[in-house]
Design a protein that fits this description.
By secondary structure, the chain is α/β, with parallel strands linked by helices. Helices cover 39% and strands 18% of the residues.
Length: 299
């Protein structure tokens, strides 16, 4: 299949393209600045620019583009960029594929477990209602934009992704230095649930959904979330470093603002990948310690 991939240069998009090629597919990046001579397609989501003719021959779409939610303090302007990068881009792309004469068979659109908000110990599956904080509101509107493709008869999934574990980029990569220095520790009370997935399983799950019959929301998280205290002690054990001292939250709050810290670091989301498991997807990494050892190449 020729598969259009937005956010192709990001952590997930880069790994996804490699996996698609390995499976015999042709990924087609959707980017603002295609390299000369490449087969990438140009768009400008904020300006509403995408040439419908460029999409001829596209058989599936994986839409991952969006402003980083952890790229800086959540000023009003930054929050507007986070929202608009998702709603404008998703609407533009969904409307475009809906208008094609020969439409793609499937539209997989990014979302996040931020949809659920801060839910304590509650087990959350795809039928659970949305939360009421900023990120939940972003996800609700983001997913609604993808429904423009579904209304045109294209099988559409919204990918509610958890914390993606990778040694080079993302949340885990940012934690590695303090943990390796022996100053890593739990955040806050440590009782908050963290729903994670390895990059390998994230990409495998997306490939599974490209060929599945599933539609609607899909949680992309491993089956066994852990509390932050367990994540901390497990990472310390894998790295063979102590994790005795809790990390005070005032320091990241001063740097990034309290709202961002509470929404990303202290939020509790105990998410179950019910749809994926019911559809027969087999996780390569179900439990945290072997997952971290695989990601960090620690026997």
């Amino acid at each position: 299949m020729r598969i259009l991939v937005s956010g192709a240069s990001g952590l997930i998009g880069t790994a996804l393209q490699e996996e698609l090629r390995a499976r015999g597919h042709t990924p087609v990046p959707l980017t603002r600045q295609p390299a000369p001579g490449s087969h990438a397609i140009r768009w400008d989501p904020m300006a509403g620019e995408l040439d419908l003719a460029d999409l001829d021959g596209i058989e599936a779409v994986v839409h991952l583009a969006g402003e980083s939610i952890a790229g800086g303090r959540w000023t009003d302007e930054q929050k507007a960029r986070i929202l608009e990068s998702r709603t404008k881009g998703t609407s533009l792309l969904a409307e475009a594929v809906a208008a094609m004469d020969d439409r793609p068979s499937v539209f997989l659109s990014g979302s996040a477990i931020g949809y659920y908000g801060d839910r304590g110990d509650e087990v959350l599956d795809e039928s659970s209602p949305a939360g009421d904080d900023f990120l939940a509101g972003v996800c609700v509107r983001w997913e609604a934009c993808a429904q423009l493709a579904a209304e045109a008869g294209i099988r559409t999934c919204t990918l509610r992704t958890g914390i993606v574990l990778d040694a080079e980029e993302g949340a885990l990569a940012k934690q590695l230095l303090p943990f390796k220095l022996g100053v890593g520790g739990r955040l806050g009370s440590g009782r908050q649930w963290q729903s994670w997935i390895t990059l390998a399983d994230e990409v495998r799950a997306i490939c599974h959904l490209l060929e599945s019959s599933v539609s609607g929301a899909v949680n992309l998280t491993a089956p066994n979330p852990v509390r932050n205290s367990e994540f901390t002690s497990t990472l310390g054990r894998v790295l063979r470093r102590p994790t005795l001292l809790p990390i005070p939250t005032f320091a990241p709050s001063l740097l990034y603002g309290r709202e961002l810290v509470e929404s990303l670091l202290l939020v509790s989301q105990r998410v179950a990948p019910s749809v994926l498991e019911a559809d027969g997807f087999e996780f390569r990494h179900r439990d945290l310690e072997p997952a971290l050892r695989a990601v960090l190449d620690r026997p």
